[in-house]
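dude i think i finally got it to work??
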Amino acid sequence: MDTAAAYAEALRRGALDPVLTRLYRSVDIAAQRDRYLDLLDCFESRVGPGPAALILAPGRTELGGNHTDHNLGVVLAAAVHFDCLAVARPSDGNMVRIQSKGFDEEIVVDVSDLAPRPGEKDTSMALVRGVAAGLAESGRKVAGFDACVNGEVPMGAGLSSSAAFEILIGRIFSELFNDGECTPLELAVAGRAAENDYFGKPCGLMDQLSCAAQGILSIDFADPARPVVQEVDFDFEGTGYRLVVVDTGGSHADLTPDYAAIPDEMGRAASALGQTHARGLTVDAVLAHAARIREAAGDRGVLRLIHFIEETERAAEQAEVLAAGRMDDFLNLVRTSGDSSWRLLQNCISATDPLDQPIPLALTLTERFLHGEGACRIQGGGFAGTIQAYVPADRFTAYTEFMEEIFGRGAVMPLKVRRPGFERIALDMIGGEGGA
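look at this
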């Protein structure tokens, strides 16, 4: 049986280093080893010795399909090496107690009561209760547990720290009480419902599904109840480019209205053409009925609808060219996607503070630095936070120095793709068994 003490002993003698290497690629393995040991020590000191499950959930980066998932579109996304890590054990009764590293206050939730609580809006407790409710609704068992959590997914960096936490909680319920049988789609649906209905933030399903399924994924949401997920077999490590995000320091606070306006305007624009969602419309139809759409959704609604149609087609094409190993074609599509987000979707600048424009500044500086090499685009939801860039490996150090002079030390974050196979680390994985 796995125990916190056995994990710690295996880590100290280096027996789990091969697993950590596959998880974190060329990232500092010694630092990850220390991180795991620190979390295990926290667990033993707070919960006590005995059985323990070591469970993980990664963040994600969007490679294509900017704001397409909520209108039944196509996205291209990848799980990344930044992750949420938990050590957990079932407890007696229905109380969930989570100690998160860096925070003195415990997350405490009674999962015998799964109704939304208005007073928990915008809190981690809401996410825990919401995930539990979603899994219970799908027929899964939920019960109390004790856990210590270390979240290394940077908050506000467009890497879906909240979705990673939601999937982590779902995985704990899955591993401890359901024999690990909860599917990635089940976990994702529960996480999205928790964020929408309990936490109070609108979102599609891309973030949660990408974190739950892992790898590079092409996801078609034409049927949102049964999205078609295809893994794209590609490794950026051998391309000569470094995939990075740049944290511009812009805050996501008070941006919910900006995010909510995008699906709202796309929905009103589609409704003007007799559809509930934008999927299935063509640019020719939009141009032929632009006056009608303007009246229903405004000028921006017309532009955002055109973005959706072309971005969905582009995301599908990006998956095809990656699968074929055509990196140059992929980079051209990234550039086109970035231009569409800026001009048509218009999620690079928040209307609430037009003088604050870190995203356009970071994009412009990156374009000037790259001089036609590589590519860059908005990362994730937009309006603030991060951009994504593909930087030639031989210029990565210079790019980092250039951008961090402006946006601060640590702003440039290289990403490694997390492949599927490590939802839970078991001690029998020592020696290379399991994983990707």
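The two ends are 23 Å apart (CA to CA).
im so relieved honestly
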